[in-house]
Amino acid sequence: MSAPLTTTGRYFDGRSARAHGVRLQLGERLEIVGEDRRLDWSLLDLRAAETAPPLTRIGHSSAPGSVEFEDTAFADALAACCPDLARTERGGGLTRLVLWSIAAGVSVVLTALYGVPVASRLIAPLVPAAIEARLGEAVDRQVVGLLGTPPLCLEPEGRAVLDRLTARLSATMSLPVAPQVSVRRHALANALALPGGRVIILSDILTKSKSPDEFAGILAHEFGHVAARDPVRSIIRAGGTSFLLSLVLGDLTGSTVLVTIGQAAISAGYSRDAERAADAAAVSAVGRAGGDGRALAGILERITDGAHERPSATAFLRSHPYTAERARTIRATAGETPANVPGTSGLLTEAEWQTLRGICPPKETKAKETKAKDPKAKEPTAKEPTAKEPTAKEPNPKDPKADDPKPKDRQDGTTGDGAASPPTRPP
Amino acid sequence: MHADDDRRGTRGFVAFDEGAKGLTGLVVKGLLLTAVTFTIYRFWYMTDLRRFFWSRTLIAGSPAEYLGRGKELFLGFLVALAILVPVYLVLFILGFAVPLFAPAVPILSGVFLFLLGQYAVFRGRRYRASRTRWRGIRLGQDGSAAAYLLRATLWWLLTILTLGLAFPFMRASLERYRIDHTLIGESRLRSTATGRSVLLPWLAFYGVGLLPILATGLAFLNNVDFSPPVDLFVPHPKGKGNAFIFNPRYAGTAVATSFGWFMATLGFALPLILLLIPFYRARETRAFLSATHLGEARLTSHLKARSFYWPYFVYLVTVACFSLVIGILVAIVFGVIGPTANPGQQSAALFGGGLLYVATVFGMAVIYTRVVMLGLWEAVANATRIENVAALEAIVASSRTPASGLNEGLADALDVGGALEIGF
């Protein structure tokens, strides 16, 4: 080795903040010589702290002192002969850390994907009826708000027909609670089931139905969700999923868009099964009640905007199986059941059907009708597309704000009970 | 200049290494890893950022040193979760099972979060202090987070009761508590911050913003005999359910004129209030820094308000340019495909859009860190001097055990504080 390198620096003994001027000499060892001290550090013990060049600070792995100097040539020489200079206690754990984090994240996602649905299926039947009713009330209020508080439709004659139809359909199904059906004037052809047996019908679906059987199919489909306790399950699932995801994100005070999207994607697989089951339940219920179960296929196809149905990159966000596929399944199922004479079925007479379609009075009387007389539908609402998802308003333990983004997503026609038709004014 | 003196630490300069080489790489790496690790990496990223900023801040010639570990923050976060989750669940179940409580739950959780937030601020600071070393001496913080919490709560109540007039006094009081319980080694810092020193900048908010609003509001109320007519707004005749227009019945009356003035004042006073925030913060930082003593030594700050505006201005301009570039790229990506594009093209566009989104997020984060965070930090550091720096040599190390990382977990779970706090 050539002549030992030297430079000047400041030594701090780790006990006081006083700076001691020292001379550094790099040879076989690092010598630090000051007026009143002479230190001799092994090159193996030297540790560099992070500093901005030209300043360098060298510490000792076991002694408290440290030395600072500004000589970059000296620093380079030091780096060349001290193997452990840059060693920190984190010591190459970065890859391990990243891999473990990914593993943890994947485990949470898998739990959300597979564990939470199972848990929600197990828990849903355990929810007491009183709690479910209260939940339904809250969800109803929220859904109505999201839809822009559409007015209730309460024409007494139409209401009576609807009640009769409801009773007839529910008699053929084993529903956990008596369904409470409310109709709201809205330009979306849709219907939805909420916890506590609440079903909201948006008036445009009545307008678009060509026969009582079609409408009965929609109604029975929602009852199918009620029978399967899908709304409660879906709330438990969405709540659990968003809770899990925000645990990982550490965002306990407010959910994020990420959570929302994740949830929508995750719920898609689940709700397709639920939709198929509800379809099957609807077909057989309408058949047993004396109607034509196959009619459901027709109305589904009609209220579906073809443009929304092409497979696209957003397809995974859809919560409802493609209409064509559903319609095919429905027709196949209905074929096996002894169907009545198509057309005017045994469900409703033509007169009753027209009365039912008139349940939403002409617009002028709207203000009057909003004053709900129906005790059952206290604060009903209409909601957006889709029968299935009360997820939009699941009570989020973390943050009330969390709910906001969701509805918007849905509105873009990413879902739909069959599919949201483009908003059109009802005649 | 005084470089030699500076190096020997005999002159009391506080300086920040302006180049900040390597910061962009740090931010990009940190964000990337944060993204792929389901955000768990953020604790390590925060630690890296702090180590970077600390090590480039030279105080009397010696850089500060950050000794924290990402692992400590992560463990602290886990513990905070274990405390917070049951509390949230109880609140949630309470609101659900006892309908009587339901309306109170958001208020309860808001109050609870606020209290916990104040607690977390103090404990987080204690963690950061104990992980900071300068000239081989560790900093520390004693005092009680509960006492701080009590102080903060009472002061906030008073501030609300006095319509904000007590705010500067609250800030000064809390600053005194924090600084008076901060130690460098065995030496205790002392703060003589007073609310009076920042009262004038604070009153500026009232002068430019609140008074004109109040005056025009009163004028309007005077015109309507202090009972605003309920039919001031009527539903838009052709609009949707919630569109309203000014009732034409009042057009041309003094009511309409004064209401117009009121709205106009609101229109310009609110942005002015926003614009004043950096001014107040700069004044407060200057006053509070200059009130910080350590034995015979004391800090002085000649921080100019404009050096707080400049980073924000640069940030806005940069973001505007950046958005323009991104906007053009978005137009290109979505322009090449028409509405009749097939699913493949749609997917490609979606993918391109996703990439652009990621690029935007990263770009914005880098710009924010480099321009705003760095700019403010640098402004504060470079405007600070140490008077009577020789007195600092009297500082001796303490044998306190360093605070645990658990202290800061709460702050992360509550999202208070952020990665870096100016003036620590």
Task: List segments of chain A where confidence is low: pLDDT < 50 over at least 5 consecutive residues.
Answer: 253-259, 264-270, 306-319, 337-344, 364-427
Q: Largest chain interface and its two residue counts?
A: A-B, 52 and 63 residues
Sequence of secondary-structure elements of chain B: HEHHEEHHEEHHEEHEEHEEHHEH
Main beta sheet of chain B: strand number and arrangement? 10 strands, antiparallel
- Computed Rg of chain A: 34 Å
Return the structural class of chain B: alpha+beta
The share of residues in extended strands of chain B comes to: 5-15%
Return Rg of chain B in Å: 26 Å
Shape designation of chain A: rod-shaped
Question: H/E series of chain A, N to C?
Answer: EEEEEEEHHHHEEEHHHHHHHHH
Can you give the helix content of chain B as a percent range? Answer: 55-70%
The total count of strands of chain B amounts to 12
Average pLDDT level of chain B: 81
Oligomer: heterodimer
Spatial ordering of strands, largest sheet of chain A: 4-3-2-1-7-6-5
Helix-strand makeup class of chain A: alpha+beta
Residue windows where pLDDT falls under 50 for at least 5 positions of chain B: 1-9, 417-424
Span of the ends, CA to CA of chain B: 29 Å
Taking the alpha carbons of the first and last residues of chain A, their distance comes to 97 Å
Helix content of chain A: 40-55%
Adjacency order of strands in the biggest sheet of chain B: 1-2-3-4-5-6-7-10-11-12
